[in-house]
Specification:
Blueprint lengths: L1 H14 L5 E2 L2 E4 L36 E5 L4 E4 L2 H9 L15 E7 L6 E3 L4 E4 L4 E2 L2 E2 L2 E3 L2 H10 L4 E4 L5 H7 L4
Helix pairs in contact: 2-4
Length: 178
C-alpha cells in the first residue's frame, strides 16, 4: 500500500504541469498565455521636443527614439545619440525623475530603413556611416545584424554595436567631447 501511495504521489507531481481541458473550451486550463512580440509605437506630434537637443522630433522621424519611464512618463529624443546621452547620464535631467537604468520601462528607436519602432535593446547600431541625424554624427539603428551589415557597407560604416556595447565614451566622441 505504501508503494502505491508513493507512486500515486510521484505521478501526481509529474502530471501537475500537464494542461487540462475545460469542458466546452478547447484551451487548457493551466496553459500559460502566449507571449507575443511587443508592439512598439512612436506617439509624438508637432509639439514633441527632444529632451537633450530641444529639437522638434517630427521634423526627421527616421531618427526618433524614446524611453518610457516606469513612472509612466515618456521622453522623446531627436536621435539615438541623444537617447544614449540621456541613458548614460539620466541625473543630468533630474526633472525627469530617473536615477538609474532600472527606472526605464521601455527603450525604443526607429529602424532607419523601415521606419518602424523597434526595441533598442535588441537593435544594432552602425557607427561612422555617412548618414547624419539632426544631432550630427550619430548611430544608425537597424533591427537585424544583416540589415546593419548591409547598411554599413553601403554607407561606409566603421563598426556595428549592440545596445549594451554603446558606451558613454562613444557618445562623447560622437558629440566631439573627447
Amino acid at each position: 500500500m505504501k508503494l502505491f501511495t508513493v507512486l500515486l504521489f510521484i505521478t501526481s507531481l509529474l502530471l501537475a504541469d500537464t494542461p487540462v481541458k475545460n469542458l466546452g473550451n478547447d484551451k487548457p486550463v493551466n496553459e500559460k498565455p502566449f507571449n507575443a512580440p511587443a508592439f512598439y509605437t512612436m506617439d509624438f506630434d508637432k509639439n514633441t521636443t527632444c529632451l537633450v537637443r530641444h529639437f522638434k522630433v517630427y521634423k526627421d522621424p527616421k531618427w526618433v527614439a524614446k524611453i518610457k519611464v516606469r513612472s509612466g512618463q515618456t521622453v522623446y529624443f531627436s536621435s539615438p545619440k541623444s537617447m544614449f546621452e540621456f541613458y548614460h547620464r539620466p541625473g543630468k535631467w533630474f526633472d525627469v525623475g530617473v536615477k538609474s537604468e532600472r527606472d526605464f520601462a521601455e527603450i525604443v528607436v526607429t529602424d532607419y530603413e523601415t521606419l518602424k519602432p523597434i526595441n533598442a535593446e535588441t537593435a544594432f547600431f552602425v557607427y561612422g556611416s555617412r548618414a547624419t541625424s539632426p544631432s550630427g554624427d550619430d548611430l544608425v539603428p537597424l533591427a537585424t545584424k544583416e540589415a546593419a551589415e548591409k547598411f554599413s557597407k553601403a554607407y561606409s560604416g566603421k563598426r556595428i554595436f549592440k545596445f549594451d556595447e554603446v558606451s558613454d565614451a562613444l557618445i562623447r566622441l560622437l558629440n566631439g567631447r573627447i
